[in-house]
């Protein structure tokens, strides 16, 4: 049954809106004290304030008394690479002794190692590990997740990754938004022929992705030693011409003016942005490009965090994501994400909640159907053990999720 009443919540943190929130707007969570939310046939149908009479027959609904608990929109993780083969645990110790991300890649580690393991993995093996990872994310309150390909870097494996995500989207409660990232690295067989590899993606892979409806967007790793600005512009422009949304890994390791390119092309989002310039930040704010920040990656790599405070103050739409992947961020820890965002990136708790709900929905183009508690949206909800959203960063590193609701159905109950 997808009919649900959650009543008497200490706080209903609606994050109300149907568009990404810029700058100061991120501080307004539209909280209703002692509120009730009704989900009918999987969609939010009523949001009631204290004392308002139930407009439906309670007998037709499952009822949860949320006294003393806070209710939020389901969390949305807009940047992950959760379908992959193998692991890279040895690289963690290399990083701890000071080896850089690029040094590890040059040694045959990094993306290339995961590519080899993913090529060898069967589709069913990827299905099983993917399902396990989604289960873990769901227990942390994530109800929608983006998944990128990019660990195949050849036709068969890229399509295999995308098929796995498509199948999981059909069978798992968590919604999966797939992104094709053939331009994640330059595979060994294409070294020295980077332009040809871009052509391969444009001329062969994009049409297959579009025809099979295997992804909604494309992404590219715009970085020194990987794909240059001109190559990224060509790749993304061609993707848009073929009907795909466009995203970009920008200014992560070196200041390459990726943020400026994202603004120029009006990308759906620009992600990482540790080295984004002041000019790039202003341009993204002006063009409405979502700045998706990945504090768990900076933490794992011992890098400086992206300048979230400056981005918000400049009027950017800032989102948060885990960047769950086997190398630079082998974690989907929502509790740690909130703690790092607030303690080290200087977001307020209100801004952090906005960044992981309605703004992360905007980073996926889903802000019209999820990301907030608004009538007509999917009944995707997270009930916390505590009476306030402020416990998310305050109870450092602890999962405080009580229940997770997907389209009006309780899909996870931890207490």
Descriptive report:
- The protein is of the alpha/beta class.
- It has two domains: 4-73 and 371-413, Urease, subunit C, domain 1, CATH 2.30.40; 76-362, TIM Barrel (Alpha-Beta Barrel).
- Helices cover 35% and strands 22% of the residues.
- It is built from 15 helices and 16 strands.
- The protein has helices at 89-96, 101-106, 111-120, 123-139, 155-171, 194-211, 229-241, 258-265, 278-287, 295-301, 308-313, 334-343, 349-355, 358-362, 391-394, and strands spanning 4-13, 31-40, 43-48, 62-65, 70-73, 75-77, 142-148, 175-183, 217-222, 245-250, 269-272, 290-293, 317-320, 381-384, 401-406, 409-413.
- Strands 1, 2, 3, 4, 5, 14, 15 and 16 form an eight-stranded mixed sheet that branches. Strands 6-7-8-9-10-11-12-13 form an eight-stranded parallel sheet.
- The longest helix is centred in the middle third of the chain and has 18 residues, at 194-211.
- The radius of gyration is 21 Å and the shape is globular.
- The chain starts with a strand and ends with a strand.
- The model has no long low-confidence stretch (mean pLDDT 97).
Task: List key phrases describing it.
2 domains, single chain, TIM Barrel, Urease, subunit C, domain 1, 415 residues, 15 helices, eight-stranded parallel β-sheet, alpha/beta
- What is the radius of gyration computed over CA atoms, rounded to a whole number of angstroms? 21 Å
On the 0 to 100 scale, the average pLDDT is 97
Termini Cα gap: 21 Å
Q: Which spans have pLDDT < 50 for at least 5 consecutive residues? A: none
Tally of separate domains? 2
Identify the CATH homologous superfamily of the largest domain: Metal-dependent hydrolases
Task: Name the CATH architecture of the largest domain.
Answer: Alpha-Beta Barrel
**How many distinct helices?**
15
Estimate the global geometry from the Cα principal axes: globular
- The helix-and-strand class reads alpha/beta
The top-level CATH class of the largest domain is Alpha Beta
Strand content: 15-25%
Largest sheet: 8 strands, mixed
Helix proportion range: 25-40%
What is the fold named in CATH at topology level of the largest domain?
TIM Barrel
The total beta strand count reads 16
């Amino acid at each position: 049954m997808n009919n649900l009443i959650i009543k008497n919540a200490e706080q209903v943190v609606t994050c109300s809106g149907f568009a990404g929130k810029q700058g100061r707007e991120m501080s307004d969570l539209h909280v209703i004290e002692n509120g009730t939310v009704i989900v009918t046939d999987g969609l939010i149908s009523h949001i009631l304030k204290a004392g308002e009479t139930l407009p439906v027959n309670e007998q037709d609904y499952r009822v949860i008394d949320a006294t003393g608990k806070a209710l939020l929109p389901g969390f949305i993780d807009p940047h992950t690479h959760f379908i992959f083969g193998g692991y890279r645990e040895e690289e963690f110790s290399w990083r701890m002794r000071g080896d850089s991300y690029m040094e590890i890649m040059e040694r045959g580690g990094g993306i290339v190692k995961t590519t080899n393991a993913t090529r060898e993995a069967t589709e069913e093996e990827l299905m099983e590990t993917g399902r396990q990872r989604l289960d873990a994310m769901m227990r942390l309150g994530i109800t929608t997740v983006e998944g990128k390909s990019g660990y195949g870097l050849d036709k068969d494996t890229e399509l295999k990754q995308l098929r796995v995500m498509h199948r999981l989207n059909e069978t798992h409660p968590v919604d999966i938004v797939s992104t094709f990232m053939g331009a994640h690295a330059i595979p060994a067989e294409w070294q020295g022929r980077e332009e040809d590899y871009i052509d391969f993606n444009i001329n062969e892979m994009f049409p297959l992705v579009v025809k099979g409806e295997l992804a909604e967007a494309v992404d590219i790793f715009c970085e020194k030693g990987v794909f240059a600005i001109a190559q990224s512009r060509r790749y993304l422009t061609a993707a848009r011409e073929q009907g795909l949304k466009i995203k970009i890994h920008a200014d992560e390791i070196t200041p390459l003016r990726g943020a400026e390119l994202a603004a120029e092309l009006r990308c759906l989002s620009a992600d990482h942005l540790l080295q984004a310039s002041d000019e790039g930040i202003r341009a993204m704010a002006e063009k409405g490009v979502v700045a998706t920040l990945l504090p768990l990656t900076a933490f794992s790599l011992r890098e400086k965090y992206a300048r979230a405070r400056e981005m918000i103050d400049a009027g950017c739409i800032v989102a948060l994501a885990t960047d769950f992947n086997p190398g630079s961020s082998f974690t989907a820890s929502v509790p740690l994400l909130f703690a790092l965002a607030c303690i080290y990136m200087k977001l307020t708790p209100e801004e952090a909640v906005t960044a992981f709900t309605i703004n992360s929905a905007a980073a996926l183009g889903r802000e019209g159907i999820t990301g907030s508690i608004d009538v007509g949206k999917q009944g995707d909800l997270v009930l916390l053990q505590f009476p306030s959203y402020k416990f998310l960063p305050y109870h450092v590193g602890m999962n405080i999720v009580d229940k997770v609701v997907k389209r009006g159905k309780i899909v996870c109950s931890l207490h």
